[in-house]
Amino acid sequence: MANYQRMREQSKHRRKHTLLAQACLSVVIVGLLFANSYAVVKLFHGQPVFTLPALSLGAPASSASAPPSDSTVSDSGAGQPADTAEEAWNTNQVLPRTVNADVPLAQVMQMLAVPQNGKVSLEYFRDALFLGDSLIEGFALYKPLSEPGSAIFYSARGASPQFFLNDGAGILNRDCPTQRETEHVWTDISGETPGKVYMLIATNAIQTMDDDGFMHYYTQLMDKITATFPGVPVYVMGITPPAKEKAETDSNYSLTRIHTLNNRIAWEAANRGLYYVDTHEALADSEGYLREDLAGYDGLHLSSGEGYNIWLDYLRTHTVYSPANLVYVEEGPYT
After folding, report:
1. Which residues, at least 6 apart from 26, have a Cβ–Cβ distance to it below 8 Å?
2. What is the pLDDT of residue 329?
3. Is 211 exposed, middle or buried (0-12, 13-18, 19+ CB in 10 A)?
4. Which of 222, 229, 161, 159 is nearest to 192 (CA)?
5. Within 10 Å of residue 97's Cβ, how many Cβ atoms?
6. DSSP-H helix ranges across 149-289
7. Which of 48, 137, 194, 316 is the most buried if burial means most Cβ atoms within 10 Å?
């Protein structure tokens, strides 16, 4: 009898050990399944499974985010710490883009200009609003944009940015098929529904205003256009190149001044999310002056429709991506 009791006690102990082992094994299995599921979910969402402590590599973020002053930067890099460029990435703060708007050559405007794309059809300009002075008026005077329904023009001879900002009165598109008078030019413009806007209003304005004064009003006009037509692509065309004789005899139109202003225009346009168009790439010769075969009598305007055809072809191959220009007549390097 005693042996029987002992056997029952031993059997109970064995069952307890077995149940305990099974319970532990179940816990381990559940833990492994959970860990595996966690890892799969993290990897699926592109997140690291384990996070390691951050390593400190060099200068703190606050010092890396400060742009270097002009006094420490030169073409050769002299005066700048050797490891600055390699440490600049080590920051969570956005580094401001710094562009020197006073460079005498056309560096900034070329860097920020809309690059070449595929060539759009002329249909693309049916809902384009052209805003400007007598240079823009030429588009409305010569084919193909002079055809009815080809584009929308609000241009006036001698117009300055203030003419549009102050809702002025005048004759629009003089001598063009779309000629008309307006009492309140911006009121009329506000009633349009363009798909894109092209602006160039500088030829006369820079003759009577200094650089800062001109930029003050021109940037106000950029802001007014974007406020009036939110979400509409705005192409800010650079001041066109002057003929060589004009540039050398009239300091208002020297190449240095034109390039400096275009650099500032390109920077202000890019800073607002607008698109700068480099007219010099289309119309200038190898020296940077307006091509002789395109120059008019005053060295500022174009002599004939041939210049506008060249300019328009350039606009057709320098557009930004939008649902309005998905299909190109000719493919370009980025299509």
Report:
1. none
2. 74
3. middle
4. 229
5. 10
6. 161-165, 185-190, 205-208, 211-228, 244-249, 255-271, 279-283
7. 137
Q: Which segment of 92-96, 175-179, 229-233, 292-296 scores lowest on mean pLDDT?
A: 92-96
Q: What's the chain's length in residues?
A: 335
8 A C-beta contact, residue 111 and residue 119:
no
From residue 69, alpha-carbon distances to 79, 85, 100, 108, 278 in Å are 11, 14, 11, 18, 29
Burial class of residue 260 in the structure, from the number of CB atoms within 10 Å of its CB (0-12 exposed, 13-18 middle, 19+ buried): buried
Q: Taking 60 as the threshold, does the pLDDT of residue 185 lie above it?
A: yes
Distance, C-alpha 198 to centroid of its chain:
14
Domains, the chain, ordered by start: 1-61 (no CATH), 108-325 (3.40.50.1110)
Measured CA distances, 297 to 152, 243, 248 (Å): 27, 10, 15
Reported as a single tens digit per residue, the pLDDT across 245-302 is: 999 999 999 999 999 999 999 999 999 999 999 999 999 999 999 999 999 999 999 9
pLDDT at 291: 97
The tokens of 264 are what? 């500032």
What is the C-alpha to C-alpha distance for residues 219 and 203, in angstroms, rounded to an integer? 16
Q: What is the DSSP string of 51-80?
A: -PPPPP-SS-HHHHSSPPPGGG--TT-TTS
Q: Report the candidate in 286, 288, 322 with the shortest Cα–Cα distance to residue 109.
A: 288
How far apart CA 259 and CA 101 sit, in angstroms, is 9
CA-CA distance, 134 to 156, in Å (whole number)? Answer: 6
As a whole number of angstroms, the distance between CA 126 and CA 195 comes to 9
